[in-house]
Design brief:
The complex is a heterodimer of chains A (251) and B (144). Chain A has 251 residues and is an alpha+beta fold. Chain A contains five helices and twelve strands. Chain A has two domains: 146 residues, RutC-like (60s Ribosomal Protein L30, Chain: A, 2-Layer Sandwich); 93 residues, 60s Ribosomal Protein L30, Chain: A, CATH 3.30.1330. Chain B has one domain: RutC-like (60s Ribosomal Protein L30, Chain: A). Helix content of chain B is 23%, strand content 24%. Chain B is globular and about 45 Å long. Classes of the chains: A alpha+beta (251), B alpha+beta (144). Chains A and B meet through strand 2, strand 6, strand 10, helix 5 and strand 11 of A and strand 2, strand 3, strand 4, helix 3 and strand 5 of B.
Chain lengths: 251, 144
């Protein structure tokens, strides 16, 4: 079933800005939220600020939205954190770790252009613990592997495993980094009871789209048959890496 | 389906468009599938403005690129027994964030009621695309 989550009016960006999207939709026990920016939840007014104030505002709004969706911040499964400039990575982290639970969601951070001059946008998926009518229907959520305060290597939610954005430990060519990442990803997936062959969707960030072919040459070796769905985007990487990869797999 | 955790093993299958010219990954020998279905959810790869007749890219005005991409997405989902109206979450990557309003305009044509949850950002794209769109959709038809 595809269910529209009733959000507080300020969080519905159709009202003030004509952004034609629902704040959140539920399907299969998961809550899929629209990219959230810093908005006053009562008036819908944009609250541009620093990376810190915008991040805090977004998490407070996310609390409200997830509650009406039958989930909570503790039940976050995956976060794609987008910031306007990679130089603010540590600033994002300082605010971010105040809001995520002790087994934090899988996370990928990317540096992108965000609409309307915002500095932060969070794109999240959560596992529901209640149905929209308030009756209990908990989708099990489990962190896999030793994480830190910012992210878990993997989160299992129901039938799915969400893997955090992975980078190569050593900087190298696109081919070398891709190989290292996918080799490590196979291990993380195995620890979560999955495997490369069970990946459903992959997101790749690469420092330059000119290296698309070099990425594919190595990538192909790891997915000989029925490869996962995939999206590849250029730039947006943090920390001088050339490649970053995250994925969703079947548990 | 209910929100109860499923106990049956869930199958993973690849989804392909009925129109072979829209099977970009096969035609260009790229290492990804057009889409993958698992249980009740369909995950589609990032899609660009590919011409369904020639298989080439329609790199015209941004509104046309977005319309073309969404039509292709509709075709892809319909090939798998789903459809645009069953999209749960959609991710739009623009080459230029200044095209945001133009995208919203097209959005209202394609999703007149109950539009999907959506995230939009701008990044570097391949092949000169002005837009790339991926989505997660509910498969099949509701039993109810």
């Amino acid at each position: 079933m595809r269910e529209i989550v009733p959000a507080v009016p300020g969080l519905d960006l159709r009202r003030e800005y004509g952004h034609h999207q629902n704040p959140a939709i539920r399907a299969g026990g998961l809550v899929f939220c629209s990219g959230m920016v810093a908005i006053d939840p009562e008036t819908g007014e944009r609250q541009h600020g620093t990376v810190t104030t915008e991040t805090c505002r977004i998490f407070e709004n996310l609390k409200l939205l997830l509650e009406t969706a039958g989930a909570s911040l503790e039940r976050l499964v995956q976060v794609h954190a987008m910031i306007y400039d990679r130089i603010e990575y540590d600033v994002l982290n300082r605010a971010y770790r105040r809001y995520v639970p002790s087994a934090p969601p899988a996370r990928t951070v990317m540096s992108v252009q965000i609409e309307a001059g915002f500095k932060v946008m969070l794109d999240v998926i959560a596992a529901a613990h209640d149905r929209l009518d308030g009756t209990a229907a908990s989708l099990p959520r489990q962190a896999i592997g030793p994480g830190d305060k910012l992210r878990s290597p993997a989160i299992r939610a129901g039938d799915f495993v969400f893997i955090s954005g992975m980078e190569a430990a050593e900087h190298g060519t696109v081919a070398a980094e891709t190989r290292q990442i996918l080799t490590n990803m196979a291990q993380v997936l195995e620890a979560a009871g999955s495997s490369l062959a069970k990946i459903v969707k992959v997101n790749v960030l690469i420092y330059s789209m000119l290296e698309y072919g070099n990425l594919n040459d190595v990538y192909r070796e790891f997915f000989p048959n029925d490869p996962p769905a995939r999206t590849v985007c250029g730039a947006g990487l943090i920390g001088g890496h050339k490649v970053e990869i995250d994925c969703v797999a079947l548990a | 389906m209910t929100d109860q955790p499923m106990t049956e093993p869930v199958a993973r299958s690849v989804i392909e468009p009925a129109n072979p010219r829209l099977n970009v990954s096969r035609n260009a020998n790229l290492p990804h599938s057009p889409g993958v279905r698992v249980g009740d959810l369909i995950f589609l790869s990032g899609m660009g403005p590919v011409d369904p007749v020639t298989g080439g890219r329609n790199l015209g005005p941004i509104a046309e690129q977005i319309q073309q991409t969404l039509r292709n997405m509709g075709h892809m989902l319909e090939s798998a027994g789903s459809g645009l109206e069953r999209i749960v979450k959609i991710m739009v990557v623009l080459a230029d964030i200044r095209h945001y309003d133009e995208m919203n305009r097209v959005w209202r044509e394609f999703f007149p009621v109950d539009p999907p949850a959506r995230t939009v950002c701008a990044l570097q794209l391949s092949n000169g695309n002005g837009v790339e769109i991926e989505c997660i959709a509910l498969a099949g038809k509701d039993p109810s």
